[in-house]
Each structure stands twice: as structure tokens, then as C-alpha cells.
Amino acid sequence: MYCNYVFQFYFSKMTIDFYYMNVSAPCRAVLLAAKALGIDLNLKHLSKGEHLSPEFIKMNPQHTVPTLVDNGFVLWESRAIMAYLVSQYGKDDSLYPKDPKQRAVVDQRLYFDMGTLYARYADYYYPVYLHSGSFEPAKLERIKEAFNFLNVFLENQEFAAGNNLTIADFALIATVSNFEISGFDISPYPNVLSWYNKVKTTAPGYEEVNGKNALLFKQMMEKLMKNK
């Protein structure tokens, strides 16, 4: 009883500032993790160009979002932020296991999301959305290859790193939802599709945090395309 009181008191007093953009998939991943942990972040939504201000660059020299400030401790890169939040504030380690082998699998999935899946999304779609590029068939094949990898990872298991929800699922579903709203067909990858639907109904606050904001991202990209 006393421990619960102390825990609740501590959480009520802490201030964790979260600099983000709601259309950003990495930002949405962190928001999903915070929801799952029951953490109320002090949200600081950035408008265009605010991340380039001298104040922000002093705080984060890479001037990237998301950026988290926990009582003076500054951290950026969404996957590192999620791992930190679980390690610092998680009631248990289910979202980011302490067991070395289990954690290694979660890390592998996080690196796969960053270095392969999300990277190939950006490589294929952003030159078209943000510049005057065109969709390149060879890059689309690389996306299909990445989805085949993910489909294999998900064989005989419910979630990205096993049979429990972890921060790897938050990172991956934020990315996969970007593919879906961009028109990529997920149906040829049955394990991915099953996992996608399961996480959408399992992750706390999914629709509020990721579903609605992914649609905002879609609207923003469509507007950019029309204004070219």
C-alpha cells in the first residue's frame, strides 16, 4: 500500500517533456510506449522549423524529433527513448525484457525497423512526397523484401519479438501504418497482417495515438503532392 502511494506520488511530481510531431511515425511509437506504461508526458508539439531554433539545437545538436527531457536528462532517437522509459519507469520489464536473449531479439527488431523497414519507406516515398521524384520499381522490390523478412520473423508467434507485446511492436506498427496509409498492400504477408490487426487491438490507446495521427500524416502528404 505504501509502495503504491510512493509510486503514484512520484509520478505525479515528475515532469517529462516530450518534443514531437504527431505525424511522425517515430514520435507515435514513443507515445504508444508511454500509453502502455501509464506515463503522462508533457507534450510539446513542434511546428515547422521550431526544431532548428538555437534553443532546441542547444538541447539536441542533431535537432531531431522526438526529443525527451526528463528533469534535465535529454535523450533523442525514438527507440532509445522507449527503452529508457521502460527501464526507468516500467512496473516490470515486459515491454523491454532484462533477460539478455529476449532483449537481444527486441533490439534486433528495433534495428530492423530503423535500418531496413523505415529506411526503405523513406527511400521510396519521401523523394516523391517531399521533392519532385518518382516512384522507383527497384525500391518497391526492396520494400517487398523487407516485408517478407518481417513475415518470416512473425512465424509461429503473436508479436514482433515473441508472444508478448514489446517496444519493438510499437516501432514496427508505427512504420507499417505509414505503409498502409501510403497504399502499400499488406495482404500478401499473412503473418504481418495478423500481427498488425492484433497490435491495433492490444496496444493501449492505439487509435488515439497512432491511428488518427497516421491519417493526419496521410493528409499532410496528400496536400504536399497537390501543391507541387
UniProtKB/TrEMBL annotation:
InterPro entries: Glutathione-S-Trfase_C-like, Glutathione-S-Trfase_C_sf, Glutathione_S-Trfase, Glutathione_S-Trfase_N, GST_C, Thioredoxin-like_sf. Residues 99-224 form the GST C-terminal domain. One of its GO terms (biological process) is glutathione metabolic process. It holds the Pfam family GST_N_3. CDD domains: GST_C_Delta_Epsilon, GST_N_Delta_Epsilon. Residues 14-93 form the GST N-terminal domain. One of its GO terms (molecular function) is glutathione transferase activity. It comes from the Eukaryota. Homodimer. This is Uncharacterized protein. The lineage of its organism: Eukaryota, Metazoa, Ecdysozoa, Arthropoda, Hexapoda.
